[in-house]
Design a protein that fits this description.
Length: about 375
Amino acid sequence: MKYMKENEIINLLNSQDIAINKIVLSDRAQGEYDKIIVRPVVIKGVKNYQLESFKTNKVFHKNVKENELFNNVPLMDFKQMFVETVGKNLIFSASKNGFKLKEQANEIKDLANSSHNKTKQYLINEGDNVPVMVELGIFTKENKIVRTMYDKFKQINRFIEIIDDVYKTQKLNEITILDFGCGKSYLTFLVYHYFVNIKKIKAKIIGYDIKSDVVNNCNILAKKYGYTGLEFILSDVSKDKLFEGKIDMVISLHACDTATDYALNFAIQNNVKNIFSVPCCQHEVNLSIKPAGEYDILIKDGLFKERFSSLLTDAIRTQILRAMGYSTDVIEFVGFEHSPKNIMLRATKTKDKNLQLLKDIEALKNKYKFNQTLFDIVTKKQTKL
């Protein structure tokens, strides 16, 4: 196992032998950001890097020159570094002796034009004439995948493939979908395109987000491309009144922290048939859990605590869905190299409630004193019935 210091890592990543496709910094040790994702971008013909920095429920973007990248990226603020390069992945993990380096071979050469991408057939493919994908920055004007958006392209296609697997069994003539925490709405637009332009069925899709500039821009794009059944609404889903008609599907892709809980609760309370949720940034349990017994070994160290808390959060959500009558499975919807937040909860309402399934969660919660929003909301509603 090889150990490296900060200057050695920087020298390695700056070497001519390394072509960086993406850097993901996670598991914060210090500093203000929870995670930073770095991707190369070309601005006016010059290579730069875009920094996407996550802080609680906010995301900040900054472009820096290629030769100033590591003056702007605080490597030592994080315990984990994932670096995707042409031909191999570099995985750095903090230890008392420096950063342990592990290398993994990959077949990625040119993400936009590799032979793999040409042969792999998605529901929406490179070369398809989907003008809104150009506007969203996923495709170039020539309908080629923008190299730095390949991960996003694959995530969205995989999400739609999973939706399609369920849709095909239910054979709906029209569909109503709510997207919680839609953000820039890559997924929202392409789900609408898929159902309306490819499957040729009537669709009403509403995207909710708390950022007014994002919502306004998405509504402008929807109007520009004639997406008459697509609407974006500025809303705090934890307290605002939402759509009250019949809803066939609730989706959420990386709705941050408790936003996922409010999305799941809305679906449960409205008996929505299908739920597809990819959670993100599960901070709540991590910040509140207390030592109390046999699981203390998993919450003693920061890295273990973060991962254990994330898994516990999503296990609780899964159990609650089952308790509320949903057949639920947990799948890895894309590989870790495309997104470290790659667990999807896929649920279909098929049976009656079984509230006994909440007892194990209640026992854990009482013992370890953690907070979990979905459990609190659901159990509070049940006591009122």
